[in-house]
Design a protein that fits this description.
By secondary structure, this protein is an alpha+beta fold. The protein is 69% helix and 8% strand. The chain has a five-stranded antiparallel beta sheet, with no helix packed on it.
């Protein structure tokens, strides 16, 4: 117990001495050892990195999750090292409401069937948003947090030790100066001066060692910048994928709504109902099962709209293209795609500018431009 009291008293004495030295430096009453210019530049660069990383992290969190309550919940789960429960995205919730409303109004009515169509696409948009959130958290937000909560805390600790070593060094310099002045007045023996010189050498050695440790850590900021650069590229790629998916979904939704509008505007003795895409595809696959279906089968043998367009208009701008993402054809006029394959594409006058005609061997159909990288 006596040893602990002595150690506590010694630590308090060191703290008080450093506080006095620090105060006198601020008041201009004591000399201060300046750090190496290179080390000062590294410290300034590190502070800048820390400050901007915090700002970018906070604003990215706001971008991905605008709800402050949800961000607080995520922060608490992260600190407790627990897995955050799966949360429904806003588009998914909207899509669910639309589907429930369609059941109330009647899925066989024009309004109800359209609600079903739009609701399903809203849920797809929500799924794409969920994937963006998960990818961004893993590839961008987590590395930035790891730097602030790991590397930066280590750097800050070593910088505080360096500041303490500098204060100790300046305290020893001041003691030696006072000892020499007292020796000149014959107030002190040379032994006191020798003791002060020894303490100064020890303090200088410890300061130099700590300065080297701090310098090595600060130079690692360059590696941090390279790591954050890769993370930023991954984040931009995740955003590009998300917006491409959203664009594709909305294009599909517009085509479905145009079909609904055309069916509603066409006179028919019964109420016009927007067909479900899944039911349409299953109907084509199952084949004709009634006289009415036989008529549909005969009509399907007629030339497709794409073939008629190519017959009426000349093909222009044939070139190669690389497929960026997988794409499933929604009807017989489209061509399914596989990522990284090469196909031949060209345009037909009068076609939607967001689409091209693609060919793969004997297969041919419309393909979305956003899923392609055109090659020279």
């Amino acid at each position: 117990m006596d040893f602990n009291v002595k150690k506590l008293a010694s630590g308090a004495g060191v703290f008080f001495t450093r506080a006095v030295q620090f105060t006198e430096e601020k008041l201009g009453q004591a000399e201060k050892t300046e750090l190496d210019p290179h080390l000062e530049n590294l410290i300034t660069r590190a502070d800048c990195t820390k400050n901007w990383t915090e700002k970018i992290l906070r604003q990215t969190e706001v971008l991905l999750q605008p709800n402050p309550s949800a961000r607080i919940e995520e922060f608490i789960y992260d600190k407790l090292d627990k897995k955050l429960p799966s949360r429904t995205t806003n588009p998914e919730l909207l899509g669910q409401y639309m589907l429930e409303a369609a059941n109330e109004f009647g899925p066989g009515t024009p309004y109800g069937s359209t609600l079903i169509t739009v609701g399903e696409y809203q849920k797809r948009l929500g799924g794409a948003e969920r994937e963006l959130l998960q990818t961004s958290a893993a590839t961008f937000l987590t590395p930035l947090r790891n730097f602030l909560e790991g590397d930066w805390k280590t750097i800050s600790k070593e910088r505080r030790l360096l500041e303490n070593r500098r204060l100790d060094l300046d305290i020893c310099k001041a003691r030696l100066k006072k000892a020499k002045q007292a020796e000149a007045k014959a107030a002190l023996l040379s032994e006191e001066v020798d003791k002060a010189e020894h303490e100064l050498r020890v303090a200088q050695t410890e300061f130099d060692r700590q300065a080297e440790v701090t310098r090595l850590l600060l130079e690692g900021i360059s590696s941090t910048h390279l790591n954050h650069l890769r993370c930023l590229q991954d984040f931009a790629e995740a955003q590009a994928t998300y917006y491409a998916q959203c664009h594709h979904y909305m294009q599909d939704l517009q085509r479905e709504l145009n079909k609904c509008a055309n069916s509603v505007s066409t006179p028919h003795p019964t109420a016009a109902v927007c067909p479900d895409p899944d039911h349409l595809s299953s109907a084509f696959l199952s084949g004709p099962s009634s006289p009415g279906a036989t008529v549909s089968s005969l009509s399907s043998q007629r030339p497709s709209t794409l073939d008629m367009e190519q017959t009426q208009h000349p093909v222009t701008g044939s070139r190669k293209a690389k497929v960026l993402y997988d794409y499933d054809a929604h009807d017989a006029s489209e061509l399914s795609l596989l990522a990284d394959e090469l196909i031949t594409v060209y345009t037909v006058p009068g076609m939607d500018p967001d689409w091209l005609v693609g060919e793969r061997g004997n297969q041919k159909g419309k393909v979305p431009v956003t899923y392609l990288e055109l090659l020279s």
